[in-house]
């Protein structure tokens, strides 16, 4: 029969809490009691369970990973993959394991994220934002459970978040075009009700207006962050003349779709239309032509989310938010000197 912490406590004539403190080397336990308990553990070959190890410290060393809302990119979108990998490596070095929450069946039940966190005795949660965020996410945010968010604004008493300065990302693109006398620019955004996409769109419109660049309603189109939607959005832009001189897509994957639509229309990139994406996923370097993009520092975002969450768990910091500066990376798709590229 497998021994439990209660069995060891009974053999030693102490409480289960005392045994747990000795296992975790916490608290002030007399050396005689400690020696007695350790001897019983050695003689019986007792292996502490996960619950026994966490009983005294009140910590499970488990972090919940939540893909919030209708994200549909949890395991197949390069941006999120790289952020999560950086988070996983960093939080793992701090001694935590990760429990991934699925929201497929969960959304049909009466449970909520907060209840699940308490059930698994999680130390904290990383929340990665999608669209159509569930109300239960904000209930978790407003609870005492430490939460760190990526691309989602959290306001709870134990919550922090990190995101790219998305308004600045758009401004950098518009300013680049303006400085090279390119003033007719189209925009392909994500879903119209996407918070991140809307910030990028508003940043685009504000910069265009500030620099006196004309915004044409037909040149504002929407997708869902993936290639096919970018392809269709670009086809809509090309349905009427004149064509824009350049296009800024709110994600690289939509930009890659737009690239195909431009080519299918018999146009040359960047001679006829220049193209810039956003995220700097690996595929940008290998597209033809290589895709210009706004680089989000995915590794930095993941590491920051891990450190912020660990500090919240240990009470070492107050809730905060960090905006990570984007970097404009110019490649062939928006090259200004196009003479040598002309066909």
List keywords for this structure.
single chain, 343 residues, alpha/beta, six-stranded parallel sheet, six-stranded mixed sheet, 12 strands, 41% helix, elongated
Terminus-to-terminus distance = 80 Å
Largest sheet: 6 strands, parallel
Given as residue ranges, the uncertain stretches (5+ residues, pLDDT < 50) are 106-110
Structural class: alpha/beta
Overall helicity: 40-55%
Order of helices and strands: HHHHEHEHEHEEHEHEHEHEEHEE
Proportion of beta-strand residues:
15-25%
Identify the strand order in the major beta sheet.
Answer: 2-1-3-4-5-11
Number of strands: 12
- Number of alpha- plus pi-helical segments: 12
The geometry reads as elongated
What is the CA-atom radius of gyration, in angstroms? Answer: 26 Å
From the structure provided, what is the oligomeric state, counting identical versus distinct chains? single chain
Average of pLDDT: 87
Molecular structure report:
The structure is a single chain. This protein is of the alpha/beta class. It is built from 12 helices and 12 strands. The protein has helices at 5-12, 16-24, 31-44, 50-57, 78-93, 113-119, 135-141, 166-179, 195-210, 227-237, 252-264, 298-313; strands at 62-68, 97-101, 124-129, 147-150, 159-164, 185-189, 220-222, 246-249, 274-279, 292-295, 321-324, 327-329. The strands form 2 sheets. The protein has a 6-stranded parallel β-sheet with strand order 2-1-3-4-5-11, with helices on both faces. A 6-stranded mixed β-sheet has the order 7-6-8-9-10-12, sandwiched between helices. Strand 1 (62-68), helix 5 and strand 2 form a beta-alpha-beta unit. It is elongated. Mean pLDDT is 87; it is low at 106-110.
